C-alpha cells in the first residue's frame, strides 16, 4: 500500500519516537544507566514496587484523561493494517487542500459502504467524526467501531420506510406550479401520513414531501428539484402505482451534537448521498450538509470549509484492489447569503440548494463520473490506449486524464444532442469489444504490448541469444511461482483459506440482500468488501483462538513454545497473503503463454496487437479532430475542475431546457 506513515505521524514525530524507543532500550539494557535502579540505590528505603505503583497510577490517569484520542489512534492503527491487507495500493492526491486547524466538513461520495469512512480516516491527519446511520450504529462490530471513531448516529427516513395502503396516481389536469395533486385508490392518507412526511415511487430513491392532505384519497405533493423527473418515470396518469411512506425525522439532537463539535474546532465527515451505492455517478445530495454549514455560520459565526473527498476504487469489491483518495479545494458559504437563510421559507431553500449545487460540483471535481458502466469501460480503455506505452502515470495524472475523457465525453454528447455520429459509435463499440476480449482471455492491456514486442523479438531475425534469454525469463517465472507456492501453501491453507471462503460466501449473501432492499444499487458490489472485512475481523481471531486451544489440549508444547506459535499466526498469515499476491503476478505473466497452447486462443492473442494498434490510431485521430472544440479540456495544463464540472452541468441543464421547449 502506497499510503505511508505520514498520515499517522509527521516525519519529525516519527523520528522522535524512534530515538526515544532506542534510548529506552539502552537504559533497560545497562543497569549503570538505568535511572530507576540508580534512584533505588541512593534511597534504599524505597522499594521497587513503590515506584511501579506510582507509575501504574500515572499511566491509568493519563489513559483515562485521554481515552477518546487514544482509542481513535488505536482504531486508526488497526484499520491501517486492515487496508494494507485488503488493498494492494492506496494513493492520496490533494492532501494540501485539508485545513490543518479549525473545523472542517468532509463530504465524500459513498461507493464502498463502511470502507469509505476507514479510507478517509486512514489517509487524513485530522481526527474525523462521521455521521453514521442509526441502523448501522446498532449493528454488532460496526456500531462499536463507529463509537471508537467518535461517530454521531443519525436516524434516516429510508430506514423507517413502510408500504402505504392502496395505490396512487397523479392528476395531470392540475396546473399548479408549486404542488402536484395525487389521487389515491384504497389509500389511507389521513391516518398514515402527516404534512412534512415523504412518499417514494417504485424504483425511485427520491422522497417527495407531502404539502397537504385533503382526505384519505387526495393530497398534494411539493414540487422540488428532481420531483418532476421522478414522476416522469412512472406510468401516470393511466395507471396507479404503489408507494412507500418515509416519516419525517426530527434531527435537532443530531444538529446540536454536530454544531458543538464544529464550534470546538472538530471535523465532521458526511456522505451527503445518504447511502452507499455502486453507480458510476453521484446520487442526488441530501440538504443536511448545507443546513449544518449555515447553522454553524449563524450560531457561532464560523464559515466552515467544506472539503470534497473523491473515493475512486478499482475493482472495489475484490480482495487486493486499488484506490485513489483525492481531497479537493474547500467550498465556503458566501457570507452575504446568510440573511436570506435567516429569512426562512423560499429564500432559505434557495440559498441551501445553491450551496448544495456548489458542494455537488466540488465532489464531481474529485471523482470520474460517467452515465453508466459501459461508458466507464470506454473511458478506462481510451485512457490506457491514449497514453504512451511504458510511462507510469502518477495518481494525480491518472485522475486528471480520466476526468478529461469523462467530461469531454459528456460535452461531445451534448453537442450532438445525444445522437453521436456513426464513426463515434463504431469506435465506442470497438473499444468495448476490445475490453471484453481482454476479459475473456484473462489478460491486461499492458500484456498486449508485450505480445507485440514478443512477436518482433521472436521473428525470423531473432538471434539465438535473444531466444535463450526469452525462454529463461519464462522458466524464471515458473520457478519463482513454484517456490512461492511451496512456501505459502501451508500457512495460506490453514490461516487464510477458511476465512477467505467463509467471508466470500457471507459477503455475497449480504450483497444479494442489500440489492433486494435497495432502490439505487445496480449490482450491490458496494457492500461486498465491507462485509468481507467485517466477517474477517470476527473470524480471524476466532480461528487463531481455535488453533491455540487445539495446540494446548492435543500437543505437548510448553507455555513459551505455545506463546511463540500463537503470536506467529499474524506474521504467517500476512506473509502468505503477500506471497500469494507475488505468485499471482507470475500467473498473470504466464497466462498468455499458457493460452497460446490452445489453438483458438492463440489465434485471438495473435490478432490483439494489430487490433490495439488500429484502435489507438483511430482514437488519437478522433481526439485530434474533436479535441480543439473542447477548449481548455484539450489544451489546458492545470484545470480548475470545480469550474469545469459546473460548466458541464450548466450545459446539460440548458440542453434539457431546450429539449423540453421543443416538446
Give the integer mean of the pLDDT values.
84
Helix/sheet category: alpha/beta
Low-confidence stretches: 1-9, 456-469
Largest beta sheet: what is the strand line-up?
1-14-13-2-12-3-4
What's a concise summary of this model?
This protein has 663 residues and is an alpha/beta fold. The protein is 58% helix and 11% strand. The chain contains 23 helices and 14 strands.
Structural write-up:
The chain starts with 10 loop residues before the first helix and ends with a helix. The model is unreliable at 1-9 and 456-469 (pLDDT under 50). It has helices at 11-29, 35-42, 48-65, 67-86, 114-123, 134-137, 142-148, 189-192, 227-232, 252-263, 288-300, 338-343, 345-364, 373-386, 395-415, 422-441, 445-457, 464-517, 528-554, 559-595, 599-626, 632-635, 641-662, and strands at residues 87-93, 104-108, 128-133, 152-154, 162-163, 167-170, 179-185, 198-200, 208-215, 218-222, 244-246, 267-270, 306-314, 321-327. The strands form two sheets. The chain has a seven-stranded mixed β-sheet with strand order 1-14-13-2-12-3-4, with helices on both faces. A seven-stranded antiparallel β-sheet has the order 5-11-8-9-10-7-6. Helices cover 58% and strands 11% of the residues. With 663 residues, the chain is of the alpha/beta class. The chain contains 23 helices and 14 strands. The radius of gyration is 30 Å and the shape is globular.
Amino acid at each position: 500500500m502506497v499510503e505511508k506513515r505520514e498520515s499517522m505521524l509527521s516525519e519529525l514525530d516519527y523520528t522522535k519516537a524512534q530515538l526515544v524507543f532506542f534510548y529506552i532500550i539502552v537504559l533497560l539494557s545497562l543497569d549503570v544507566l538505568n535511572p530507576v535502579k540508580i534512584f533505588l540505590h541512593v534511597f534504599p528505603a524505597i522499594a521497587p514496587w513503590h515506584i511501579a505503583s506510582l507509575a501504574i497510577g500515572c499511566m491509568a490517569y493519563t489513559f483515562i484523561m485521554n481515552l477518546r484520542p487514544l482509542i481513535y489512534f488505536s482504531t486508526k492503527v488497526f484499520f491501517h493494517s486492515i487496508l494494507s491487507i485488503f488493498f494492494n495500493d492506496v494513493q492520496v492526491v490533494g492532501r494540501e487542500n485539508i485545513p490543518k486547524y479549525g473545523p472542517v466538513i468532509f463530504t465524500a461520495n459513498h461507493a464502498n459502504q463502511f470502507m469509505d469512512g476507514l479510507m478517509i480516516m486512514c489517509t487524513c491527519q485530522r481526527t474525523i467524526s462521521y455521521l453514521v446511520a442509526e441502523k448501522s450504529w446498532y449493528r454488532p462490530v460496526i456500531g462499536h467501531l463507529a463509537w471508537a471513531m467518535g461517530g454521531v448516529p443519525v436516524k434516516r427516513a429510508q430506514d423507517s420506510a413502510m408500504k402505504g395502503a392502496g395505490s396512487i396516481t397523479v392528476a395531470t389536469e392540475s396546473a399548479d406550479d408549486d404542488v402536484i395533486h395525487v389521487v389515491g385508490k384504497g389509500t389511507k392518507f389521513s391516518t398514515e401520513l402527516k404534512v412534512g412526511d415523504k412518499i417514494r415511487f417504485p424504483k425511485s430513491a427520491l422522497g417527495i414531501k407531502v404539502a397537504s392532505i385533503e382526505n384519505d384519497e387526495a393530497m398534494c405533493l411539493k414540487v422540488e428539484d428532481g420531483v418532476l423527473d421522478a414522476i416522469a418515470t412512472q406510468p401516470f396518469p393511466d395507471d396507479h402505482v404503489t408507494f412507500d411512506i418515509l416519516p419525517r425525522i426530527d434531527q435537532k439532537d443530531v444538529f446540536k451534537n454536530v454544531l458543538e463539535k464544529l464550534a470546538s474546532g472538530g471535523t465532521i465527515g458526511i456522505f451527503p448521498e445518504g447511502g452507499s451505492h455502486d453507480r458510476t455517478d453521484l446520487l442526488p445530495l441530501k440538504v443536511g450538509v448545507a443546513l449544518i454549514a449555515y447553522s454553524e455560520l449563524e450560531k457561532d459565526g464560523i464559515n466552515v470549509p467544506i472539503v470534497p473527498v473523491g473515493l475512486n476504487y478499482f475493482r472495489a469489491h475484490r480482495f487486493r484492489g486499488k484506490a485513489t483518495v483525492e481531497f479537493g479545494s474547500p467550498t465556503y458559504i458566501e457570507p452575504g447569503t446568510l440573511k436570506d437563510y435567516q429569512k426562512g421559507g423560499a429564500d432559505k431553500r434557495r440559498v441551501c440548494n445553491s450551496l448544495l449545487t456548489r458542494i455537488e460540483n466540488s465532489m464531481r471535481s474529485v471523482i470520474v463520473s460517467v452515465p453508466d458502466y459501459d461508458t466507464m469501460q470506454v473511458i478506462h480503455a481510451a485512457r490506457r490506449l491514449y497514453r504512451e506505452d511504458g510511462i507510469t502515470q502518477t495518481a494525480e495524472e491518472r485522475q486528471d486524464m480520466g476526468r478529461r475523457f469523462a467530461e469531454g465525453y459528456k460535452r461531445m454528447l451534448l453537442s450532438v444532442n445525444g445522437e453521436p455520429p456513426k464513426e463515434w459509435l463504431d469506435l465506442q463499440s470497438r473499444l468495448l469489444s476490445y475490453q471484453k476480449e481482454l476479459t475473456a482471455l484473462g489478460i491486461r492491456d499492458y500484456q498486449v504490448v508485450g505480445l507485440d514486442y514478443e512477436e518482433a523479438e521472436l521473428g525470423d531475425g531473432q538471434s539465438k541469444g535473444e531466444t535463450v534469454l526469452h525462454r529463461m525469463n519464462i522458466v524464471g517465472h515458473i520457478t519463482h511461482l513454484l517456490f512461492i507456492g511451496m512456501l505459502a501453501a501451508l500457512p495460506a491453507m490453514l490461516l487464510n483459506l477458511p476465512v477467505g471462503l467463509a467471508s466470500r460466501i457471507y459477503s455475497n449473501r449480504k450483497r444479494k440482500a442489500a440489492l433486494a432492499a435497495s432502490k439505487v444499487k445496480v449490482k450491490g458490489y458496494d457492500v461486498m468488501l465491507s462485509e468481507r472485512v467485517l466477517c474477517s475481523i470476527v473470524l480471524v481471531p476466532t480461528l487463531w483462538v481455535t488453533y491455540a486451544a487445539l495446540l494446548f489440549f492435543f500437543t505437548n508444547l510448553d507455555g513459551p513454545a505455545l506463546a511463540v506459535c500463537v503470536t506467529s499466526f499474524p506474521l504467517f498469515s500476512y506473509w502468505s497473503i503477500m506471497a500469494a499476491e507475488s505468485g499471482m503476478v507470475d500467473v498473470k505473466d504466464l497466462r498468455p503463454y499458457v493460452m497460446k497452447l490452445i489453438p483458438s486462443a492463440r489465434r485471438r492473442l495473435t490478432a490483439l496487437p494489430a487490433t490495439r494498434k488500429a484502435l489507438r490510431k483511430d482514437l488519437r485521430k478522433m481526439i485530434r479532430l474533436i479535441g480543439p472544440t473542447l477548449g481548455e479540456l484539450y489544451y489546458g495544463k492545470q484545470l480548475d475542475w470545480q469550474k469545469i464540472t459546473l460548466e458541464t452541468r450548466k450545459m446539460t441543464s440548458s440542453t434539457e431546457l431546450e429539449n423540453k421547449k421543443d416538446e
